[in-house]
Write a structure and sequence with these properties.
Length: 88
């Protein structure tokens, strides 16, 4: 009787462990699949924008993130230099 109980407990433990491992791997595979599907959808949207845009219109596909350094520069006032335009 003790051997049968031990066998059932071990079997349940192995089943639970396999269930957790399968769940982990399925989540990671589904996340990768969803990422690929999103990338394909983005590419299709870009292609549609290019196809529907008139030939003389500028289409921007990528706008880089602006660096914080550009905005953090403290521009201190300098000396004002007056100038005169000279026309030839």
């Amino acid at each position: 009787m003790g051997g049968l109980l031990k066998f059932v407990v071990i079997l349940l433990g192995i089943g639970w462990l396999l269930g957790q491992l399968i769940r982990y791997f399925l989540r990671s595979k589904l996340a990768k699949f969803a990422q690929q599907v999103n990338e394909v959808a983005r590419e299709e949207q870009r292609a549609q924008r290019h196809a529907s845009a008139p030939k003389d219109e500028v289409v921007v596909d990528y706008v880089p993130k602006q660096r914080k350094e550009k905005f953090n520069k403290d521009i201190k006032g300098g000396e004002y230099v007056d100038y005169e335009e000279v026309k030839e």
